[in-house]
Design goal:
With about 300 residues, the protein is of the alpha/beta class. The protein has helices at about 20-40, 60-70, 95-100, 115-120, 140-155, 170-185, 210-220, 240-245, 250-255, 275-280, 285-310; strands spanning about 50-55, 75-80, 105-110, 130-135, 160-165, 185-190, 205-210, 220-225, 260-265. The chain is built from eleven helices and nine strands. Helix 2 packs across helix 11 (about 285-310), helix 5 (about 140-155) crosses helix 6 and helix 5 (about 140-155) crosses helix 11.
């Protein structure tokens, strides 16, 4: 079967491997998947193929959306949990994956706490690998679904002003979002305490705000990120209360800007980075993000499977 010119990837390891054409090609397939998802249509794109979800970190939305997506495409789906496995006994990541692959799997969807784990495995594994999050590094499918949500909601991505607010330093979501949004022509900014901004972030053609009020005034969209206390080695701000006072997206902000679009990749810490009235406001697209996540992952799994079958 001849491949269409767009999206010739067998793995998805990083958002940075995706071109403008790749992203729009995925969007077109996600639109079709979304219609089928809402109609509860079963597809056979992955009929006879085996997908393993290997999550070495906790997850709710990502793991379940990949599972639902794979099952909607008729895949055989198995879930691997590090707790209670041979990993807990000291088995290496490579040995663990090679043993899983010996059971004849086709696609490995993996989340791992170590940045670069997926790139490390790529040359040592025979299955197609999809990055479901690695350390502080990348979360490409979250970046794709966030952009797809905006793509369906706004007239144009070109010139759209998107500010990512909160814990940028520890966020793999921010890193993936920045690349994808810029590839689509959006203007990107970040907002947070200086201690939670990566060094050199401004060199990525990203605007930096130190006050959420200024960010709200500039932006068309605020993508709110939670504080990742589990990744922090030391106190990087005085308290959650002070962070919330100066950097949370609050009801007053959406009252001032009723056209402001709100995103959040979850999990939400209500009253910390976002007030409940904002999370539940009419302009909040948080729940559509979850629905679109299933459609986007269906599109990705379908295209990865197609390319694997074709020997790409």
């Amino acid at each position: 079967m001849a491949l269409e010119p767009a999206f010739r990837h067998r793995h998805l390891l990083s958002a940075e491997q995706l071109s403008h054409d790749d992203i729009h090609y995925l969007f077109s397939h996600a639109e079709i998947a979304l219609d089928g998802l809402r109609a509860r249509t079963q597809r056979d794109d992955l009929q006879g193929m085996s997908v393993v979800l290997a999550f070495f970190e906790n997850s709710t939305r990502t793991r379940f959306s990949f599972e639902i997506a794979a099952k909607r495409l008729s895949a055989e789906v198995s879930t691997f949990q590090a707790a209670g496995s041979s990993v807990a006994k000291g088995e290496s990541l490579v040995d663990t994956v090679r043993n899983i692959e010996a059971m004849h799997i086709d696609i490995l969807v993996m989340r791992h706490s170590q940045s670069g784990a997926h790139e490390f495995l790529q040359s040592r594994a025979s299955s197609s690998i999809i990055n479901a999050g690695d350390g502080w590094h990348q979360h490409p499918t979250q970046g794709l679904l966030d952009a797809f949500t905006l793509y369906r909601h706004v007239p144009s991505m070109k010139g759209l002003r998107v500010c990512i607010a909160g814990d940028i330093l520890h966020s793999r979501v921010a890193r993936s979002n920045i690349h994808i949004l810029q590839a689509l022509g959006a203007e990107v900014a970040v907002c947070g305490p200086g201690t939670l901004l990566p060094p050199g972030i401004a060199a990525q053609n990203v605007r930096v705000f130190r006050r959420i009020d200024e960010a709200v005034e500039w932006a068309n969209v605020i993508n709110v990120l939670r504080i990742q206390l589990e990744r922090m080695q030391q106190g990087l701000f005085p308290s959650l209360q002070e962070f919330s006072r100066y950097f949370a997206v609050q009801r007053k902000h959406i009252e001032q800007r009723p056209d402001l679009v709100i995103l959040h990749p979850g999990p939400i810490n209500r009253g910390v980075e976002i007030e409940t009235e904002v999370a539940d406001a009419p302009q909040s697209l948080i729940l559509p993000q979850v629905e679109h996540g299933v459609a986007m992952r269906m599109a990705l799994l379908s295209l990865i499977a197609r390319n694997k079958k074709a020997g790409v």
